Every structure is written in structure tokens, then in C-alpha cells.
């Protein structure tokens, strides 16, 4: 034998040179490098968010009450965390490194807990990170902002008058009426069975809420009413999908996206462009949110598959640097635990989709002055006037108190402090 594997030295030299050549040729796969990942995922399985009026299962039917993450949901996100650890092995450090990962959640128990379960799957402590041998877990920060200040991950953003106008226009549009007309008798029957007023089933989205409630009750083995047959639940799903498209899409889709999901697209894009301009140690940004977050995002990007996002669904953005130095974005969607994520391609993009091309294509849904487009009045001048009046009133009150005090002292020095 010549060499450990029986190959002549000259052959081994050619193989080595060939490997180097593959890394240097234009388009060589080995030269494509992953630089930064952004994840947007839905929380895991939870309890129902409300009971319909005739529902025999009220809040006390759920161990932790309405809208809380279940043990099923914890397991779903733990498994997603394990998948992410495996997918990005070699990119992320094997152990938790605070410089590499940033996690933000909406300020809901279920999304915060989902992020924590996910991180437990990604980063089981090893070596020096083991702080208690009996607990294979370590605390990792999950950041939030108060719900009153949440403008990035909670949709729809309701403090937008123009968006509310668009939703009303959508519900009155011929396109929506054509889609919903075949279900009018069904809607009346559902109203009778559930106790929801007919108008609330569409205008307030209670049909979607009802579908969700029955889904939760079915998953958790609560007895469903006789009227909630498989056909009824399937029809509720179809109508819910129409309501989703009505909320975020089809009618004046681009303007709606500017006021809703476009803001999240802008933030993700800014994270990537900032990284290209000023590289950091950051490798992954995670947003733990809701089905409506994914819906607003994917409808804004025109990659929505018309299906409601399941629990723990995850939209993946990957920033790569190509062999020619250009940056590109890949998108994937993991909506089933039994299969690998499927690739998503922004309409108008090629593969790979360059960062510049991606930016150009989403520019129509990026808004510079969100408040202005929403029709929100600034109110600074009014606030200034009110503040000025308040200060003036306070000063006048203080002056009156001082004058009164002086008068009292002049009349009766000994009694001036008796009531203090």
C-alpha cells in the first residue's frame, strides 16, 4: 500500500489541490458563509383564550386559566429548541454565549414561557454552566417591553385609525362579500348554537376565536358540544382563513402591510444591514410571538400559504455572505415538526436573493412615518398647553397658600400651626 488509504502521494496532492480549488472558484459552496439568523416563532400549545357564551367549559376548566402555555406547548418549544441547536451546530457555540443570541418576547406569559422552553432545548448547561447537577437547565434572558409600548411583535396594531378604516372598507368590499356570502346560513346557525351575536362573528372575528376555542378543547380532551361536528369545525377553519386575509391582506394589501407587518420586516432588514455595516458577535435574534405576528409578517412578504400558523411555527431568516462578497437572504418556514423547513422565496427574487434586491422589493411596505400614515395626531402642542396651564394653576395655588399663611400669622401667631 502507498499511503494510509492506498493512494499514491501524487493522487493525494491532486485531491488536496482540488479541495482548495473548490473553495476558491466563483460560486463555490464552501465559500458561502452564514452570518446572522433571525427567527420569528409562534408560542406553543395553550389553553383557550375565552369561552363562547354557551360553552360549558369556562375558565376554571383550564389549570392555569385562559391563554396559558400548556405542558404540550412547553414540549413543542423544547423540541424546536433542540432542532435549532442541531440545525445551527457549528455556527452557534455549543454552549450559551450571551454575545451570540438575543431573545425578545411579547409581554405574555405564553410567549415568554415558550421562549424559555425553547432556550432550554437549545442550551442545556454543560461544564462550568452546570449550577445544579439535578437541574439540566440554566437561566437565559428573555427581553420584553410593556404591552402598551409593543409596536414590533403584537398584531394587529390597533392604535392606528387608518388601519381600522381599511378593515371596515374590506368587510364592506365586494370581494369580501363574495367570499363570505356562501356562509351566511352557517354563520346564523353558529350564532344560535354559541350565543355570539351574528354581527360579532365577522366584525369582531369571533368565528376565528370560536374555531380556536374548539381546537384547544379538542386537543385537551374536553367534551365538545354535539353541534361542533368535524364538518362544522372544518367550515370554521375555512371562514377563519378568509377573515385572516381580510384583516391583513387582499384588499389594499400593500397599505395594510405598511401599517402592520411591514414594521417587523423593516426591523429585521435593519438588523441585517446594520450587521453588514458594523459586524458584531451577534449570531441569532429570536422573536417569540403569536400566530397573528406570523400572519402579518408573511402576508406583508407575499409568502403566506393561506394556512393558519400552527403552534411553534417558525419563520427563519438567514443572512449569508456569498463567495463574491455580496450578502443574501434565505427564508425558511418550519410549520410541521415531522418535516424539514421548506424554503420561501420573496416574489421577484432569485436564489440566492441578494440583500439589496430583498431591500428593494420590500421597500413599498416600509413606512418612514408610521403615525402620520395611521392618521395619529401628534398632540404635542395640546400637551404643551395643558402642561402650561397646570403649572400656572399650581403656581397660583401656591401663591394663595402663602398669602393665606401670612394673613393667619398676622392675626394669631400662636395659632398659626395648631392645625398642622
From TrEMBL:
GO terms for molecular function: acid phosphatase activity. InterPro entries: Acid_Pase_AS, His_Pase_clade-2, His_PPase_superfam, Histidine_acid_phosphatase. The chain crosses the membrane at residues 386-408. Gene3D superfamilies: Phosphoglycerate mutase-like (3.40.50.1240). It catalyses: a phosphate monoester + H2O = an alcohol + phosphate. GO terms for cellular component: plasma membrane. SUPFAM superfamilies: Phosphoglycerate mutase-like. Keywords: Disulfide bond, Glycoprotein, Hydrolase, Membrane, Signal, Transmembrane, Transmembrane helix. Its EC number is 3.1.3.2. It comes from the Eukaryota. Residues 1-30 form the signal peptide. Belongs to the histidine acid phosphatase family. PANTHER family: ACID PHOSPHATASE-RELATED, PROSTATIC ACID PHOSPHATASE. This is acid phosphatase. It comes from Pleurodeles waltl. The lineage of its organism: Eukaryota, Metazoa, Chordata, Craniata, Vertebrata.
Amino acid at each position: 500500500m502507498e499511503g494510509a488509504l492506498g493512494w499514491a502521494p501524487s493522487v493525494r496532492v491532486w485531491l488536496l489541490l482540488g479541495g482548495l480549488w473548490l473553495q476558491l472558484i466563483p460560486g463555490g459552496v464552501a465559500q458561502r458563509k452564514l452570518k446572522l439568523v433571525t427567527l420569528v416563532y409562534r408560542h406553543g400549545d395553550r389553553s383557550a383564550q375565552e369561552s363562547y357564551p354557551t360553552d360549558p367549559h369556562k375558565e376554571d376548566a383550564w389549570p392555569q386559566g385562559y391563554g396559558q402555555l400548556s405542558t404540550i406547548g412547553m414540549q413543542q418549544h423544547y423540541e424546536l429548541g433542540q432542532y435549532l441547536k442541531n440545525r445551527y451546530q457549528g455556527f452557534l457555540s455549543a454552549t450559551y454565549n450571551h454575545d451570540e443570541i438575543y431573545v425578545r418576547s411579547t409581554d405574555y406569559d405564553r410567549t415568554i414561557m415558550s421562549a424559555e422552553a425553547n432556550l432550554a432545548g437549545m442550551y442545556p448547561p454543560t461544564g462550568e454552566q452546570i449550577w445544579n447537577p439535578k437541574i439540566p437547565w440554566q437561566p437565559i434572558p428573555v427581553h420584553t417591553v410593556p404591552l402598551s409600548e409593543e409596536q414590533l411583535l403584537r398584531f394587529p396594531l390597533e392604535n392606528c385609525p387608518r388601519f381600522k378604516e381599511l378593515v371596515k372598507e374590506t368587510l364592506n368590499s365586494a370581494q369580501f362579500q363574495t367570499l363570505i356570502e356562501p356562509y351566511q346560513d352557517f354563520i346564523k346557525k353558529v350564532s344560535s348554537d354559541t350565543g355570539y351575536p351574528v354581527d360579532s362573528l365577522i366584525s369582531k372575528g369571533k368565528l376565528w376565536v370560536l374555531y380556536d376555542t374548539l381546537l384547544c378543547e379538542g386537543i385537551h380532551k374536553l367534551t365538545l358540544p354535539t353541534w361542533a361536528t368535524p364538518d362544522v369545525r372544518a367550515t370554521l377553519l375555512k371562514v377563519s382563513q378568509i377573515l385572516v386575509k381580510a384583516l391583513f391582506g387582499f384588499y389594499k394589501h400593500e397599505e395594510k402591510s405598511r401599517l402592520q407587518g411591514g414594521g417587523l420586516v423593516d426591523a429585521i432588514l435593519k438588523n441585517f444591514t446594520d450587521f453588514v455595516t458594523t459586524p458584531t458577535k451577534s449570531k441569532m435574534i429570536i422573536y417569540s410571538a403569536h400566530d397573528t405576528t406570523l400572519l402579518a409578517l408573511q402576508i406583508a412578504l407575499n409568502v403566506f400559504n393561506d394556512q393558519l400558523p400552527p403552534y411553534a411555527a417558525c419563520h427563519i431568516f438567514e443572512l449569508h455572505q456569498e463567495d463574491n462578497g455580496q450578502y443574501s437572504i434565505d427564508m425558511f418556514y418550519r410549520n410541521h415538526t415531522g418535516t424539514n423547513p421548506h424554503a420561501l422565496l420573496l416574489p421577484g427574487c432569485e436564489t440566492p436573493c441578494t440583500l439589496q434586491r430583498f431591500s428593494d422589493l420590500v421597500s413599498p411596505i416600509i413606512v418612514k412615518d408610521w403615525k402620520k400614515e395611521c392618521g395619529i395626531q401628534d398632540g404635542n402642542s395640546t400637551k404643551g398647553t395643558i402642561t402650561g396651564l397646570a403649572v400656572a394653576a399650581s403656581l397660583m395655588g401656591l401663591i394663595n397658600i402663602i398669602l393665606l399663611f401670612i394673613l393667619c400669622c398676622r392675626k394669631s401667631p400662636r395659632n398659626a400651626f395648631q392645625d398642622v
